[in-house]
Amino acid sequence: MQHKARMLNLGSLAALMLLFVVSLSVGVADFSWQNLLNMSDQWQLLLISRLPRTFAIVLTGASLAVAGMILQILMKNRFIEPSMVGATQSAALGLLVMTLLFPAATLMLKMSAAAAAALLGMLLFMLLIRRLPPTAQLMVPLVGIIFGSIIESATTFIAYETETLQLLGIWQQGDFSGVLLGRYELLWLAGALALAAYFIADQLTILGLGETVSVNLGLNRKTILWAGLLIVALITSLVVVTVGGIPFIGLVVPNIASRLMGDKLRQSLPAVALLGAALVLLCDIIGRVIRFPFEIPVATVFGVVGTVLFLWLLMRKNAHAV
């Protein structure tokens, strides 16, 4: 298993590095690696646009994949992710309300309100699914989709009444075309939160074994549960504030990693982050070249790719006990 984990991590890292270079080379403006040696304006293009965009994609993919993995462990269900439990929709609602009521608030304050709304949305969802019987695991994502749709409808209604639909569309449709130097740095905090999850990975794994096991092993269950939920809420809100919501990352990537490497979080978390970053980077490159010089938002491309991968996961024979 350790050999397989090492191979998967090395393969994902190699793919990520290759895609990173390709991402820097692709774009509407002409860019040449050779001209960098001449100290031309190519450096400005690289430092102001290409590098910030590529870093933003890597941080978004890695952190959302880790958030999805944590959520699946906490709720003991492999068919959910932040956008399927109302977290993404709640973050957009909190951001919209904050923008309407306090338009002069700082970005950090708006992000904090979005994180609080995402956390509240997840808690409401957890209260809802407590009424479901333990055997109705497939009902959980169905309830989540309905719950998220209700929040999204309410948000759209508020945006329609206040003529802010265009603004809402930016938060609902993930897109990296507007990322420049100075407009993505909050995502480094999302990356740091994903890294923090690695340090409590063993406790999260024990928590996923159930309440009885975790209590018997002396785990402070409430503290780890709140820490996990807070990490998911903050990552979700940071991504929504900066580039908008991107579905399926937190659903598909953790399932691929779990099927190949099992449920031991400390072992699988690096692969989850690397796979998430590589897949989002690949989808963004596809979105940029498929109708060049126009762009298709990465959320649209990943929606198609994620659906295909998810169906493949459902139909494929389970290679590892989940």
From TrEMBL:
The keyword GTP-binding does not apply. Pfam families: FecCD (PF01032). It is found in: Cell membrane. It is a multi-pass membrane protein. InterPro entries: ABC_BtuC-like, ABC_transptr_permease_BtuC. SUPFAM superfamilies: ABC transporter involved in vitamin B12 uptake, BtuC. The keyword Cell membrane applies. Belongs to the binding-protein-dependent transport system permease family. FecCD subfamily. This is Iron chelate uptake ABC transporter family permease subunit. It comes from Uruburuella testudinis.
